[in-house]
Amino acid sequence: MFIKIDFQSEIPIYTQLYNEIIKGIAKGELLPGEALPSVRVFSQDLGINMHTVNKTYGLLKQDNFIQVHRQKGVEINPDGFPPADEVFLEKLRENLEPLVAESIARGMSHEEIIKECSKVFEKLGRKGE
Amino acid sequence: MFIKIDFQSEIPIYTQLYNEIIKGIAKGELLPGEALPSVRVFSQDLGINMHTVNKTYGLLKQDNFIQVHRQKGVEINPDGFPPADEVFLEKLRENLEPLVAESIARGMSHEEIIKECSKVFEKLGRKGE
DNA sequence: CTAACTGTTATATATAAAGTATAACAAGTA
DNA sequence: TACTTGTTATACTTTATATATAACAGTTAG
């Protein structure tokens, strides 16, 4: 799996890494049970610090996207992924709101906004489906 | 116009204020040519610092959502709002991507994601339209 | 004219977040 | 035994955020 970190971005590195791994899961490139690099190996591959990877793993573990085995390593949750419960949906709407609001303010219609959202969805479509 | 700042939020105050003003424009509550409070009055109303408001105004001015007249005050851009050009659309897609990706990872379908996006759109719908 | 207001700029300070660096620990494995 | 694993602790630097105070130049109201 190829992960690119933008060191010029205003988005924190640990957030970028979190997003990239979630994207890998969404695309179906990271399957349940699949092993992830150790914090030390991953940080060296990406050219970042060990604790930055550790922070990302901590967040992914908290959200049940990965399982951490203290002396064995990290793997994509083999028991499947967390559901889109109401807590998540509420957070999703809060994050969507400013994006949709600015789109409306710039004159986009409901259809145009949905179209952009669909484009992003298609781009994340799983290979071979 | 009622603007609420969440001092417990991890989102910077100047960003919250930016989003609230854009939301006001999207809702049609802030119309072109309408005056905005001065940086001093606004900061006192919100219980925040003058420079925090000034930073928000600077961003809104940069994006052409407001016009600033040095010794007269600030107003919602009377000449209309910036278009959803390709630069904005690209930024929009970049911001949508992690949200859509996590939605997919949590098992949401294309229709379910679109539905949530529509909910947010409807919530921002202009009064009386 | 004077006083009050406007956005703007400068300086200083405090706090928190982000990221790095180094080290050590306990436990599993080759 | 040697190496790896996640984890924790400490220390440090840099940047972002937010506040506080002050001053400037020009506009407007009394």
Compact summary:
With 129 residues, chain A is mainly alpha-helical.
Task: Give the SSE layout.
2 copies of one chain form a homodimer.
Chain A (H helix, E strand, L loop, with lengths): L12 H15 L7 E2 L2 H8 L3 H13 L3 E4 L3 E4 L9 H20 L4 H14 L6
Antiparallel strand pairs in A: 1-3, 2-3
Helix pairs in contact in A: 1-3, 2-3
Chain A binds a DNA duplex (30 and 30 nucleotides) through helix 3.
What can you see in these coordinates?
The structure is a homodimer of 129-residue chains. By secondary structure, chain A is mainly alpha-helical. The first copy, chain A, folds into two domains: 13-76, Winged helix-like DNA-binding domain superfamily/Winged helix DNA-binding domain (Arc Repressor Mutant, subunit A, Orthogonal Bundle); 86-123. Helix content of chain A is 54%, strand content 8%. Chain A is built from five helices and three strands, in the order H-E-H-H-E-E-H-H. The first copy, chain A, has helices spanning 13-27, 39-46, 50-62, 86-105, 110-123; strands at residues 35-36, 66-69, 73-76. A three-stranded antiparallel beta sheet of chain A has the order 1-3-2. In chain A, helix 1 (13-27) packs across helix 3 and helix 2 (39-46) crosses helix 3. At the A-B interface, helix 1, helix 4 and helix 5 of A face helix 1, helix 4 and helix 5 of B. Chain A binds a DNA duplex (30 and 30 nucleotides) through helix 3.
